[in-house]
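The records we work with from here on pair a chain with its fold. A complete example follows; check for yourself that the lines match position by position.
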Amino acid sequence: MGDPAAESIERGQQAATRGDWKTAVSAWITGSNAGSLESANLVLTAIPPLKTQADDGDVDAQALLAGVLLDFADASALPMVLTYATAAARAGHRAAQRTLGVMYRTGRGVETDAHQAEALFTAAAKAGDPYAAFNLAGMHITGDAQVRDHDQCLRLLRQAVSGGVTEAAAVLGDRLAAIDEDAEALSWYLHAARRGHAGSMLAAGCSYRDGLGTEPDPVQAVRWFLAMLDRGNRDGIHEAIQLVKQGMTDEQIRTAGQLAGRASEAEMLIRMALEHGG
């Protein structure tokens, strides 16, 4: 399997060679989100040609440039963000509406205005923007929406998940767990866990340990506690140790380790269980 960040860099460079700066920037943003500093630097180098396209009236370029400047530039670029985001939002561009909504929600470059933010997120979400749906759900959760609506919040979170927003699945799990819809909550935790969300791995592990929304399953519990190590998160190790000490068999522990891709850590747990039993 290739390196996603390297592939994004290559894809972006090929697009830049063709003069397709919108595709290039989108690819490099993907690489940056994967943790590539090189990709982030390439995004910054693409601002001048992207700005040329935006100034020529390309609405997609205006929306993309506004998002890039908001995420990658410093506060001095906020007036430019406002200019391009406003122009593209007025043209009905959903990503620009979301960017402008973030500005009004956070007070970056404008006076904070929750009602304006909600209106912009609503328009973008209705147009199919999953991140706007997630942001709007957040306003329902915090009580900043004009009318707080639990059911609408769940619908927005499901829209965001279907659009690829992994964090929305984790939040959806939390919202359902809070009203004791444990089986569905677990399904969303697993959705996010399989996509690398460490908090959802922990929640899934605890659900399997405690039998919330499922039958107790120590193998699956330890599997997800160990999987957190792939995200550099050791919060599940203590939980795994405590569960192993309660009497898991060596075979169960090894199975959990295999499922998590953490065979060596499973052997460590077996040694700890043996020492504890002795």
In short: The chain has a mean pLDDT of 95. Residues 189-278 form one domain.
